[in-house]
Amino acid sequence: MISFKGAQFPKEVILFAVFFYVRYTVSYRDLEEILAERGVEVDHATLNRWVAKYSPLIAANARRRKASTDRSWRMDETYIRVKREWVYLYRAVDKFGKTLDFMLSKRRNKPAATRFFARALEMNGLPRKIVIDRSGANTAGITAINRMLKSFGCPIPIEMIRIKYLNNMVEQDHRTIKKRIRPILGFKSFSSASATLEGIEVADMIRKGQLMAGLCPFAQFAALAA
């Protein structure tokens, strides 16, 4: 359970604000105005702190509680601007487009790819195959993971497929995330970017029906804090 102890606003208000921001294309000042029209006076800087604090906690619960996914994966990374510099959002979906995992990284290299694959395996189990583009870093990352699996006694390595057109699904899936962050016009810090993107990914998982069927989107988001 996520603690809201010491918060000056009710839990429901905080969760509504965080969900509204990560789900819809609004700025913090827009959200400040929307809440004020509903009788809730809260500063946009406070809204920013709520998203930074609670989004990663909710995302961690979403990773654990999401529905099972297929063992055929599609993995790719996309660019995100932070303080006028480009960083990399690693993302993986299964062959049906269901979100597997996501990770923001300052580097696009073998250690970053290996770290992402290791975390994705921890949260989703062992895939049968992973489709990637021709990135050398991602190739090296999967190779490193297969070496680790072999050392743990796993007899069958993960099949690696390097065919770009087969990766169109995850590349298309990037668009939903990019559409949401476009109005932000760049993040001020890496930690803020990472937290916000985690919340956006959770909202997208809810849209895809990966969490609690039968509940409205906000109820699903709020349930992840319980």
UniProtKB/TrEMBL annotation:
Keyword annotations from UniProtKB, A to Z: DNA recombination, DNA-binding, Transposition
PANTHER family hit by this protein: BLL1675 PROTEIN
Pfam families recorded: DDE_Tnp_IS240
Superkingdom of the organism of origin: Bacteria
Species of the source: Jannaschia pohangensis
Role summary: Involved in the transposition of the insertion sequence.
A biological process from GO: DNA integration
Keyword Protein transport found: no
UniProt domain Integrase catalytic: residue ranges: 52-225
Name of this protein: Transposase (Or an inactivated derivative)
PROSITE patterns in the cross-refs: INTEGRASE
MF (Gene Ontology): DNA binding
InterPro entries: DDE_dom, Integrase_cat-core, IS_Transposase, RNaseH-like_sf, RNaseH_sf, Transpos_IS6
